[in-house]
Design a protein that fits this description.
β18 and β19 form a beta hairpin. It contains 19 helices and 19 strands. By secondary structure, the protein is α+β, with helices and mostly antiparallel strands.
Amino acid sequence: MVQFADRATAGFSSAMHQRLEERQLIIIPRYFSSPSLHFRHSSSSAAAAAPPSSRLPIDFLEILQNNHPNLKISLNKYDLDSHGHGESHHPVSPPDAVLYPSSVEEIQDILRLCCREVYREGDDVPTVEIVSVIPYGAGTSLEGHLNFMLPQDDSVESNNDIIVEIPVSLFESNNSGVSEQLKNETKKVRIKRKGGISLDMCNFQSIGELTPGDGFIKVGAGVTRNSLNDALRHTGLQFMIDPGADATIGGMTACGASGTAAVKYHTMRENVLAMTTVLPPQTIASVTNDTASRSKPRVVTCGSNALKNSAGYNLPHLFIGSEGTLGIITDVTVKIYPIPSHVIAASCTFDDLHTAAEVVTTIRMLGIPVSRIELLDEISIRAFNQSVKNEELDPMEEKATLFLEFSGHSESSVMADLSAAQAVCVDDFEGSNFVSARDEMTRNKVWAARHKLYYSSIALRGGGDNDGEGATSQSTIVTDVCVPLSSFADIITATAKDLRDLDVFGTCFGHAGDGNFHCILPLRPDDTDEYKGNVFKVIELMAERAINVGGSVTGEHGVGYGKKKFLEKMYGGAGVSLMQTIKRSIDPWSIMNPGKIVDLS
C-alpha cells in the first residue's frame, strides 16, 4: 500500500481533509518500500567469468563481481534468450550476460567498464573494447527493441585489423589537466566490439511517498503498472496509462507507451514529470581496473514535480521514446489520477468499417468526453466468435464494432455523455445493437471481444503457443500507425482492403479516439515466402499512407529496428541527421542499444 507523507498535512483546510475522507484517501505517516526480491538466477560464484563462447572481454564479469559482490549475473541460456527478444516475431538475438543491478552506482560502474582501453598479449597498439548495453523492463516491446544488433562484432575477423587514430583528450587518464597542444594529439588504437549485456531493472522497485494534494508519485523503473496500481489501491488514486501488457514504468517511458485510455489521459509523454537517467560514458576508461580511479558516467535528473515547467530544454521528452539508446532510466515521477466513481461501458455495430471510423471522428469533434473508444473490424469479431464457442459469452454480429467507455464523478454527467454518444452512433450513423453496462462484470462482457482480440486473432490461424503447426505469439506481427482523425476512416479502411486484396489474414483495430490503429498479422511455419512478402507489403502501405497524411509510422510501439527504415521518409534526411547528432553527443561510442532508431557510422 502506498502511504501519504506526513509533511504539510496540517496546512490543508478542514474542507480538504473532509474531501479526502469522502474519496477514501488514507493519510498514513511516513514511507512505503517494496519487499526485497528473490531471484532464481545463477549465483555470483557460478557467473564469475565469461564462458568460452562469450563475446565479452575475458575479465569483464570478473572485474564487476570483484567490485560488486552482490551484483546478480546470469549466464543461463533461458535467461539469455528471454532477454534477447520482446513479444514479437523478431528472431531471438540474446546478450552474452544478464545483469541485475540494484543501485545507480552499480549501473555507473557497469557502464564505465563498457568502454575501456586494454593491452592484450601480442597487441602492437592498445585496444578499446566496447560492450553494448540494452536496458530491460518486462520484455513486452514489439519492434525488436531488445534484440542485440552489434555494429562490429568481435567475431568479424577483418575487424581485428582495423586501427584508427583517436584524440588523446578522449582517454580518461588524459582528460584533465592536459595542455592544449596535447589535446590536439592523437593516439592509435584498435577498436573492438565485444558482445553485449542486458541490464534487467527489476530490482528498482521503490515506490515513493504520496503527499495529499499532489497528483504524482516517484517510482523505480522496474515497478510494473499493475504493481503500482495495487500499491495505490487504498488511496483512491491510480496510474491511468494502460498499454495492455503489464509493462514496467521505466520501459513504458523509454518506449513512449500509451494504450486504450490515452484518449482521456494521454500518453507517457504527457504523464512523466521527471526522471533520473544514467548516461553512457563519454571517454575511454583507463587501463587500470581500479574502480576508485575511474570517473563515473553522469547521472542526470531532469524535469520537476511541478505540473508546469518552462525552464530550459525539455529533457524528459528527450528520453521518453528513446528506447534505451541514450541512457538507463532508473526512476520516473508520473502523474496519478482519482479513480472515477461512475463507469459505463457500451458497444455498437455498424454496416462497414468506414462508417464506424467516421463515428469516432464525429464524437471527438463534438467534444463528447470518452474514457476509451476502440474500433474492431469484422474479422476481429469473427476471431472473437470462434474463440468463445466453449465459454459463457454470447457471439456478436460480425460487423465493425465500436467499444466505448465513459467515466466521471457524477452519474448524471456520465449518463449525459453516454446519451450523446448513442445519438451519434444510432441516430446520425444508423448503428445497431447499441448496448451499455454499469457493473464491472457486465462491462467486461460488453468489452470481451476487445480484451480477447490478440489471442483470438492468433487462434484463427490455427495456432497457439503450444501448437507447433499454427501461429504463435512469437510468430505474430503487431504493427501500428497513427494518423490525423480527419484521415482515420480512409486509412484504416484502405488497410483492411489491402488485407483482402493481398489475401493476408489480419485483424484491424484501433485506439480510435487518437487516430492510432493496429494490425495483428499471425504467421504460420508453413506460410510461403510470397505470403510473408504480402504481409510486409501491408505494413509498408500502412506506413506510407500514414506519412502521406502527416501521421506517424508508430503511435505507441516505437521504432526499434523494425521501423527504422521509415524515419527518413517521415522526418527527412535533416531530421534523422539531427537524431544522429543527439545520439552521438550523448553516446559517442554507441554503447546503448546500438542499431535502434538511428545508426551511427
